[in-house]
Design goal:
single chain; 78% helix
């Protein structure tokens, strides 16, 4: 009966978000209260459980997510994103322009949140389409596949970063494994798949053609690439160096300190403030204004994450987690696949990759602990599942349709199919890595 209550509560959450269009944060709060009462928690204890769950999740993520949003906004506003794209085009040329778009989307997707990246990169896509007179989907889908995969798989994006905390994974190792899984997913879902979409008519509006910054206003290529990749460099170094240093090395504590994800993001933000801000002639007040705008973009994401923490805490304190684990253990399925499937189903019902990932975490944590599944791979399995089945209840679906001027049918054939391809390839990559890592 307890497990039935939990699944009814999750179904209620899905209905509130997808059918009644209730804000995801408010839906999480409402379902948390209902779940607490239905599962027999003392009514007076439910508010404190919710507050604790919200505080525990945000306490670990607030710095990472806010600093990451500020970095992404500065990368875009400074012209670094345009410079990265420009250099990539010059390297690859018109013949291999798809790969330039993939590389651009991947590099920009690491520091940039998906919604911001989509809006900022679509004008760049259209400028290439108009300049080279190439099919819009053939050019655009590879870049957007890269943006989507980095959003679903790689910290410091909100869902992967939150899953790292909840699964007690290692941020650096998750990032390294995520890079290994991301590359084939992007290649198959982007350049390869988009070759079959050349005949689909798309009519991007001329008004989306970008008003580019002049060459003199752009930061240098090294500055742009270095700043965008600095979080990856530092997190990777923090995971690798402890493996090669002696346990009593005097510099090890400093490496562990500097490798903490929150510290990494603050270091990167300080570096970016100078490299892409002050050294480019921007005033400190202007840079702070950019950072303030970035916080507006991710305020709702923070609240959704907090809401998911509230529901998870209620489930934990009710004791239902162990019962769910016992039930799921009887299902003859690889835990990584089971987590992927749960995330995919919730994504199909809710439409949000972030909500799908975070909701799955609360269900799968006890099973992961009982089966000793690799937590880094579990983050990636849930991330891959959360990208599946994008359709009419997903904001990204409609953004793609409207920006590219597609019919509903063609949006399913292109966007929805691409998202499912990267989710399936991601699952395959995770299961493949599990053979060697476990």
């Amino acid at each position: 009966m307890t497990i039935l209550i939990v699944f009814l509560c999750i179904a209620f959450l899905i209905v509130l978000i997808s059918v009644f269009k209730i804000n995801a944060f408010l839906s999480f709060l409402a379902v948390s209260f209902v779940a607490g009462l239905a599962l027999g928690l003392p009514p007076a204890k439910i508010p404190s459980s919710i507050e604790k769950g919200m505080g525990d999740v945000l306490g670990s993520l607030a710095i990472i997510i806010t600093a990451g949003a500020m970095l992404g906004k500065l990368v875009a506003e400074s012209g670094a994103a345009q410079k990265i794209a420009q250099v990539s085009m010059n390297i690859f040329g018109e013949k291999y322009i798809q790969w330039a778009m993939v590389l651009t989307g991947f590099l920009i997707g690491i520091p940039l949140y998906y919604g911001i990246g989509f809006v900022l990169m679509v004008p760049l896509i259209f400028s290439v389409v108009y300049r080279y007179k190439l099919p819009a989907l053939y050019i655009g889908l590879p870049m957007l596949a890269a943006l989507s995969v980095t959003h679903g798989f790689l910290p410091p994006h909100p869902s992967p970063a939150a899953l790292v905390i909840q699964f007690k994974a290692d941020m650096g190792l998750t990032l390294l494994y995520g890079l290994a899984v991301s590359v084939p997913a992007i290649i198959i879902g982007g350049p390869i798949f988009s070759r079959y979409l050349k005949a689909i008519p798309a009519s991007p509006l001329a008004s989306f053609t970008p008003k580019e910054m002049s060459e003199s206003e752009l930061p240098g290529g090294f500055k742009s690439f270095f700043t965008a990749l600095l979080p990856v460099i530092l997190l990777a170094a923090a995971s690798f160096l402890p493996m090669v240093l002696a346990s009593n090395s005097p510099i090890l504590p400093y490496i562990l300190f500097a490798g903490n994800p929150s510290v990494v993001m603050l270091i990167v933000l300080i570096a970016a403030t100078w490299l892409l801000g002050l050294s480019q002639g921007k005033k400190m007040t202007e840079i702070m204004g950019i950072y303030a705008e970035a916080l507006k973009d991710i305020a709702l994401i923070l609240l959704i994450i907090a809401g998911s923490g509230a529901l998870k805490q209620v489930l934990t304190e009710s004791g239902v987690s162990n019962q769910i684990a016992d039930y799921l253990q009887n299902i003859k399925a690889e835990p990584l696949f089971l987590a992927w499937m749960i995330a995919a189903i919730i994504r199909f019902c809710v439409g949000s990759a972030t909500v799908a990932g975070l909701t799955t975490a609360g269900i799968i944590v006890p099973l992961m602990e009982h089966t000793h599944t690799n937590p880094n791979l579990m983050v990636l399995a849930v991330g891959a599942g959360s990208l599946m089945f994008s359709h009419v209840n997903d904001a990204g679906f409609w953004m793609f349709k409207e920006y590219f001027g597609l019919t509903l049918k063609d949006t399913f054939k292109s966007w929805a199919m691409m998202e499912s391809i990267v989710g399936l390839v991601g699952l395959g990559g995770v299961l493949f890595l599990n053979i060697f890592i476990s």
